[in-house]
Specification:
The chain has about 260 residues and is of the alpha/beta class. It has a domain of about 70 residues. Helix content is about 40%, strand content about 25%. It is built from nine helices and ten strands. The radius of gyration is 19 Å and the shape is globular. It binds adenosine-5'-triphosphate. Adenosine-5'-triphosphate binds next to strand 2 and helix 1. InterPro entries: AAA+_ATPase (IPR003593), ABC_transporter-like_ATP-bd (IPR003439), ABC_transporter-like_CS (IPR017871), ABC_transporter_ATP-bind (IPR050166), P-loop_NTPase (IPR027417). One of its GO terms (molecular function) is ATP binding. Keywords: ATP-binding, Nucleotide-binding, Transport. Pfam families: ABC_tran (PF00005).
Length: about 260
């Protein structure tokens, strides 16, 4: 660990990813992707469907190898998953045979926390995602959006130094989504984790982030990185009312729209 606030926490250097498709053609999902995240930075990744956002997150998570290039965390090369890098993925992984609370308690359990301690931690994060009442339920008794929230609570309970989140609020209704955005803002302000956050919502990206990476497609690459110079701490309602919020939102929207139109031609 470098321990320096401005040293890169995550560094992605010249990453390419090629997939061999079923038709044997090669598909270049990522081309020469480079960026660095400082410790405690919140970065969102946006871009048209298929531009490689999930692929990039999987590579940083160590769940997928890059074809070329490197990812380092605290100067150490990523070669596989680590409990330091918590993930919330689109195909969330919860254990169907465990009660909700025991799903969330899994990380603390792996760290050797006592039953009482891990249940206390799990309860705390279940409250955070608004599922305190469902602690003793089984996942099959919950909706898709509720399961998604379990996956978020599970990651929070592991207390990783890096959050890698792929559309974590995608399956939620608009109101729950807003509540969880606020919760994530408060948690981030308190703990200052380094976050890579994939989203289709430009509004969400601008609200939460320090910087927004806009990706282009075919092949997936970084088009631009937009700094979000909005004041913190952020309260969603106040932030959305600021003229800069609208300007940033429109800028990113136009950038993605241009990409999407080009892709569809
Ligand atoms: N395992 C795989 N094998 C072959 N091609 C893949 C594989 N995974 C992803 N791809 C391709 O890589 C490209 C990027 O996919 P990815 O899921 O990363 O995009 P995305 O930006 O996250 O898309 P979306 O916004 O629709 O979720 C797509 O063209 C996809 O078809």
């Amino acid at each position: 660990m470098t321990g320096q606030a401005d040293a890169p926490h995550i560094s992605v250097d010249h990453v390419n990813k090629r997939f061999q498709t079923a038709s044997r053609a090669q598909l270049q999902a990522l081309k020469d992707v480079s960026f660095a995240a400082t410790r405690g930075e919140f970065i969102s990744i946006v871009g048209p469907s298929g531009c490689g956002k999930s692929t990039l997150l999987y590579i940083v998570a160590g769940l997928l190898d890059a074809s070329d290039g490197t990812v380092t965390v605290d100067d150490e090369r990523v070669t596989g998953p680590s409990p330091e890098r918590g993930v919330v993925l689109q195909n969330f992984s919860i254990f169907p045979w465990r009660r909700v609370i025991d799903n969330v308690a899994y990380g603390p359990e792996m760290r050797g926390a006592s039953r009482q301690e891990r249940r206390r931690i799990a309860r705390q994060y279940l409250e955070t995602v608004g599922l305190g009442e469902f602690a003793e339920y089984f996942p099959r008794e919950l909706s898709g959006g509720m399961k998604q929230r379990i996956a978020i609570a599970q990651m929070l309970a592991c207390n990783p130094s890096i959050f890698l989140m792929d559309e974590p609020f995608g399956a939620l209704d608009a109101l729950t989504r807003e509540v969880l955005q606020e919760q994530l803002l408060r948690l981030w302000e308190r703990d200052r984790k380094t976050v890579l956050f994939v989203t289709h919502s430009i509004d969400e990206a601008v609200l939460l982030s320090d910087r927004v990476i806009v990706m282009a497609t075919r092949p997936g690459r970084i088009k631009e990185i937009v700094p979000i110079d909005l004041p913190r701490p952020r309260r969603a309602e106040e932030i959305r009312a600021l003229p800069q919020f609208g300007t940033l939102r429109r800028h990113i929207w136009a950038s993605i729209r241009a990409e999407t139109l080009e892709m569809m031609q």
